[in-house]
Write a structure and sequence with these properties.
Blueprint lengths: L10 E7 L15 E6 L2 E5 L5 H10 L9 E3 L9 H26 L4 H12 L5
Parallel strand pairs: 3-4
Antiparallel strand pairs: 1-2, 2-3
């Protein structure tokens, strides 16, 4: 587990893909992707609309997919999942594995009863 974030560990956000940019080295394209760096952790938040543009822009920013620890897809619009369109099977497998970990965590005793009852309280419709 990683250490909690503190003020001494800055977080940087770099736009990788967008419709406009102040960096002449980046290719403009429909879609959005950004790199979030927090200490030793690098997150790719969305993957733009075009995998080739994403890869080009990562290289222009002296980065590549091997340096990314986590990919977060905000939603499944095509302008945010360009890389995922090509590699969707691998991403879905990783997502399914994470869901299995969550299910296992929810089932662990002795916290399972407390977790499930708290979940039910939060997600039950109000009584009529």
């Amino acid at each position: 587990m990683s250490e909690p974030m503190t003020a001494s560990r800055p977080i940087t956000l770099t736009i990788v893909c967008d419709n406009y940019s102040l960096d002449a080295h980046l290719t403009l394209a429909w879609g959005f992707a950004s790199l979030i760096q927090a200490g030793e952790t690098t997150i790719l938040f969305d993957t733009g609309g075009d995998e080739q543009v994403l890869m080009h822009n990562l290289a222009a920013l002296d980065s590549d997919l091997c340096q990314i620890d986590t990919i977060v897809l905000s939603h499944l619009h095509l302008d945010h999942i360009g890389l995922a369109k090509t590699h969707l099977q691998h991403i879905l497998i990783a997502a399914a594995m994470n869901l299995m970990r969550v299910a296992h965590w929810l089932a662990e005793e002795p916290l399972a009863q407390a977790r499930s009852s708290a979940f039910v309280r939060l997600h039950q419709p109000a009584a009529a």
